[in-house]
Amino acid sequence: MVGSTDNAENAGAVGVAESSGTAKAAGTRTAGTTGNAGSPADQPGTAARGAALPGPDDPALRADCANCFALCCVALPFAASADFAAGKQAGRPCANLRRDDFRCGIHTTLRERGWSGCTVFDCHGAGQKVSQITFGGRDWRQHPDGARRMFEVFPVMRQLHELLRYLAEALALPVTRTLHGDLRRALRELDGLTRRDAETLLATDVAAVRQEVNTLLLRAGDLVRSRAPGRGGRPRNHRGADLAGARLRNADLRGASLRGALLIAADLRGADLRSADVIGADFRDADLRGADLTGAVFLTQPQLDAARGDAATRIPPALRRPSHW
Ligand code: SF4
């Protein structure tokens, strides 16, 4: 979270499209190629009809703490737990937030001090958009009159940005080419929505937006899973399954659906998760040592950061190997 100059340090658990995540993410607090659908100007990351569609590696879909007013450290509530050394209410600045700027005073020692929940949180770029676009750079300290609305908009924007990130990933996959028209349309509409004013954002039926987008993401995930390498027979379906603590060592999970699955502390050592759909899966403390996550779709940095792994864990090239592995 806040205080790092490295965006990746602010990564977080997820689950907006499907489920799960840390308490903070739950609201109490990139593949680069494109398919051949459409003109080059319509591809993510390039100008399309006067607007630019974000690509999966777009900086706009990653936390940029330098341009954010520490919204994740103020707007979101969290309870004291194994992930957070102390709790706080929504709209109250965390006691560790520095008073002279919008940085965390302990960001280099968060894990050691019991704040690991902060190290696995990612706003997917929502923080800087609310700070700089929705509220035009007017921070909540100098403009307390707008603080409450800003704190209300942030969790809405975070959910929308997470969906943007998934849509951008799906659109960048050649295997989803039959969906590219729908994905592009959804991405454009959603991106436009995130640029509307605070009132419009607060009036948005986020659940309906999620449902609509999730239908597309489900189809995209199924296309990826259907091409899982070397897999005979039907890929496993563990959608929403409670696999907390499950013994899945060396399991063949190629092309499996693990959408929203609870994999907390699961033993996934040596498991083959290639081309699995892991959207919203909760990997907290899951043991991924030696596992193969190559081509896993909708895998996020926060999911990796929340898990355990080692040098033998294979991850998609767009993601970073967590420093604690
Ligand atoms: S400890 Fe507080 S200030 Fe630091 S990153 Fe976590 S919530 Fe933000």
UniProtKB/TrEMBL annotation:
Where on the tree of life does the source sit, at the highest rank?
Bacteria
Gene3D superfamilies to which the protein is assigned, alphabetical: E3 ubiquitin-protein ligase SopA
Start-end of Low complexity biased regions: 21-38
Q: Which InterPro entries match?
A: 5peptide_repeat, Pentapeptide-BTB/POZ_domain
Q: Spell out the residue ranges making up region: Disordered.
A: 1-53
Q: Please report the name of this protein according to its UniProt entry.
A: Pentapeptide repeat-containing protein
Q: Which organism is it from?
A: Streptomyces xinghaiensis
